[in-house]
Amino acid sequence: MSAGSKISRTSLVGLVAAAVAVTAFTVPAQARTGVGSDGEKAGKAHQKTQQALDALVTSGLPGVTAGVRDKNGVWQGTAGVGDLRTGKARGADDRFRIGSVTKTFVATVLLQMEAEGKLSLDDSVEKHLPGVVRGNGNDGRQITVRQLLNHTSGIFNYTSDPEFARKHLTAPGFLTHRYDTLAPMDLVKVGLSHKPDFAPGTKHSYSNTGYALAGLIIEKISGSTYEDEVRERIIKPLALRATSLPGNNPHLPKPSARNYSTLSDPTATEFYDVTAHNMSWGWAAGDMISTTGDLNRFLSALMRGKLFPAKQLKAMKTAVPAPGDPLYTGYGLGIYNPHNSCNTTLWGHSGGTPGAVTEAVSSPDGRHTVSYSVNSEGGGGVIDAEFCGDPHSKRLVPAPVL
C-alpha cells in the first residue's frame, strides 16, 4: 500500500471480519489459534488469553500477536490480520515497533553503568550534560538521573507540544513529515521551550524529554551511541536476534504487519497505512523494534537479575506513586506496575507509535511473561486474561504517543 493510501474507517470491522474468515481456513494456526512449545497443554493453559486476542479483533482492531513464557514453556497466539488489503493473517513472529518499551532498555543501560561506577542515579543532569538543561525555569543542576528515569523531573513532555504533534504525529502533518530526520537535541529543545510542569521530585508526570536526555547521558558517558550501547549490553548477550534499533530507516523488517491509524483525528472516516515512517522523533524515548519472543526473553532476564546486581534491580523496582494514571499504579525506573483486575504485583511497560500499540509484562520473579502488539491503536484485556484468568476484562490501554 502506498504511503498515502487509506481504508474506510466505517468499513474496518467488516474488512477485518471478512479477512479473518478467509484466513481462518487457509492458515488457521496463525489466524485464530495459539501454539505452545509443549503442544496441547500450553494451548489449554492460555485459552483465556487467546479469547482476549480474539476479542480485540472483534472490537474492530485489525490484528494482534502475542507470546507467553511460563512454566509450560513458550506459547504464541494471534488473531486478525496483518494486511487489510490482502487478508494476510498476523504472524506469531512479526516484528513491530515497541514504542516506549524502549525506555526499559534505556534504563537498564544506565543502571548497568551505575553498577560499573560510571555514574550515580543521584548525579545531576548538569554533571553529565553541562549547560544543556537551561531556560524557561528548567535547571539541570536541580534534576537527577533518577528523576529522568522515573518521570519526576518536571521537564515538559515534547510529544505534548501542540506544534510538534501537528507536524509529526497527526494528520496531515505526519503524512508530509513522516520521513523527516530529527536529532536528539531537536526533541530536547521542544521540551525545554516550555516551563517545567513542577519542581523536580515533587510529582510524577510522564515525559519523553527525560528519556531523550537519558539517551544523551548514555552517549556522553560511553563515548558511543545509545544504539550501540543497547546492542552490546543487552541485545547481543541475550541473543535478541529480532530486536533492532532502526535509526533513520523508516521500514519495518520482515516478517511484519501493516500499521493502521486515524492519526489522532476523532472525526476521521479513513484509516491511513502508516507502516513506514522515520522514528528518529522517538529516539531513546521509543524507537526500537522487536518481537513478543524477544521482549519476553528480555523481561525474564531483567526480573531474574541477569542484567545487573540486586542493588540496581531494587532501584529499578522502587516505584513512585502515580495516582490517577490510566495505565499504572506506580512507576519505577523504566518499568511500571500495570493496573490489573486481580491486583497482583506485575512489572512491565507499554508503548504506542502511530499504528502500533505494544505491552510487555512480567511477574516479579521473571518466570511468567507476556507481551503483545496490535497493528493499530488500542488494546487491553490481554494482561488480565493471562495473569488473572479474566478474558472479558474491560481494561483499556490508551494509544499513547511513546
From TrEMBL:
GO MF annotation terms: hydrolase activity
Domain Beta-lactamase-related: 51-379
InterPro entries: AmpC-like, Beta-lactam-related, Beta-lactam/transpept-like
EC top class named in words: hydrolase
Signal peptide limits: 1-31
UniProtKB keywords: Hydrolase, Signal
Pfam families registered for this protein in UniProt: Beta-lactamase
SUPFAM superfamilies: beta-lactamase/transpeptidase-like
EC numbers, comma separated: 3.-.-.-
Keyword Signal attached: yes
Regions crossing the membrane: none
PANTHER family: D-ALANYL-D-ALANINE CARBOXYPEPTIDASE, D-ALANYL-D-ALANINE-CARBOXYPEPTIDASE/ENDOPEPTIDASE AMPH
UniProt-recorded name of the protein: Serine hydrolase domain-containing protein
Species this protein is from: Streptomyces amakusaensis
